[in-house]
Design brief:
Elements lengths: L2 E7 L3 H12 L3 E7 L3 H10 L4 E3 L4 H6 L2 E4 L6 H8 L8 E4 L5 H7 L8 E7 L20 E5 L5 H13 L3 E4 L2 H28 L5 H6 L3 H9 L4 H10 L1 H23 L3 H20 L14
Parallel strand pairs: 1-2, 1-4, 2-3, 4-5, 5-6, 7-8
Antiparallel strand pairs: 6-7
The structure holds nicotinamide-adenine-dinucleotide and prephenic acid.
The site of nicotinamide-adenine-dinucleotide (NAD) has 29 residues, from α1, α4 and β6.
């Protein structure tokens, strides 16, 4: 089923990419975008991927939309849901793209109406860039989108699944709890490590900042890309996925200590064994087509 009218709230990297992709792949006939930033609205109008843009409440758009997707920072989802839900038409679907699910569902739940079904979602696709200019239609192609529905929303989940598949994604269904621990492992803690490592390099008294920039080796450069990700979004992610993040961080510290010990005791066998195991994981990711560092990954052009 094609969505007749789609409303995106938050027309930044992910919201503008959904709007572009929904149009490019014929997954919505009319796409409206609402964003509370005047600069973002001006950019969205200029880029021309939406049929209407509003900086205000957008009651008129909400009343027409069959599907409303919240694409604002995780910490803003509750406020935005509170404002839009009263204006939505009966039977419409509400979704989101927040990088954590448990806290977003808790923030949206108090504002729900019986005749509006909320199916939370998370496209596992992105870049370190933000804003409407950074989006592109192909970003979701061959990437996973996780949906974390409740039992009542089976029909709506199927509609949303078809929508995301139409944008080129594979769809996985899981519980919010499972999502949050899996993503803490594969996305959140890796970002925390990148933020830490880049900070450590800059704080090293024995190496100047100039040298860090000048002699930035490939591995470090990859970390700086991740550590350039949006500060507001990532503050919200860590504060709202605290438990899962802390659980993975504890394991990481233990494993780092074990490798540190192997280096101290010149235990080359432990190091080799560990590095061979991690190289295998990398090969699996590449074989599964999930390596976004491959040139032109997910893009047709
Ligand atoms: N960046 C990624 O790689 C990525 C990937 C998957 C999911 N996500 C999730 O997508 C969401 C958006 O992230 P993004 O990277 O697109 O951020 P972004 O900063 O590029 O875009 C967010 C947009 O929301 C607008 N906004 C903020 N508060 C608002 C409000 N109260 N009302 C209306 N508009 C508001 C901002 O002006 C901005 O244009 C986040 O919840 C994030 O967790 C991000
Ligand atoms: O490729 C990147 O830059 C990303 O960090 C994207 C990434 C990820 O960790 O894979 C970041 C946050 C999301 O919620 C989903 C995707």
């Amino acid at each position: 089923m094609t969505i007749e009218t789609l409303l995106i709230i938050g027309g930044g990297l992910i919201g503008s990419s959904i709007a572009r992709a929904a149009k490019a792949y014929g997954q919505a006939k009319t796409v409206y975008v609402m964003d509370n930033s005047p600069e973002a609205c001006t950019a969205i109008e200029r880029l021309g991927f939406a049929d209407g843009v509003s900086e205000g409440q957008a009651d008129f758009y909400a009343a027409q939309a069959d599907l409303v997707i919240l694409c604002v920072p995780p910490g803003r989802m509750g406020d935005v849901a509170e404002k839009v839900i009263p204006n939505m038409k009966s039977g419409a679907i509400l979704s989101d793209v927040g990088s954590i699910k448990g806290a977003v569902i808790e923030a949206v739940k108090p504002h729900l109406r019986k005749d509006i079904c909320f199916v939370a979602g998370h496209p596992i696709a992105g870049t370190e860039h933000s804003g409407p200019e950074a989006g592109f239609a192909e970003i979701f192609k061959d990437r996973w989108c996780v949906l974390t529905p409740t039992e009542e929303g089976l029909e709506q989940t199927q509609i949303l699944k078809t929508f995301w598949e139409g944008l080129g994604s594979d769809v996985a269904i899981m519980t919010p709890e499972r999502h949050d621990i899996v993503l803490a492992t594969t996305s959140h803690v890796p970002h925390l490590i990148a933020y830490t490592l880049v900070g450590t390099a800059v704080d090293m008294e024995t190496v100047t900042q100039n040298e860090v920039v000048k002699f930035s080796a490939g591995g470090f450069r990859d970390f700086t890309r991740i550590a350039a990700s949006d500060p507001i979004m990532w503050r919200d992610v860590f504060l709202s996925n605290r438990e899962a993040t802390l659980e993975v961080v504890d394991r990481f510290i233990e494993d780092l200590t074990a490798l540190k010990r192997a280096i101290r005791w010149e235990d080359g066998e432990t190091l080799l064994e560990h590095f061979a195991k991690t190289r295998d994981i990398r090969r699996h990711i590449v074989d599964a087509g999930q390596d976004s560092s491959t040139p032109n990954f997910g893009r047709d052009d």
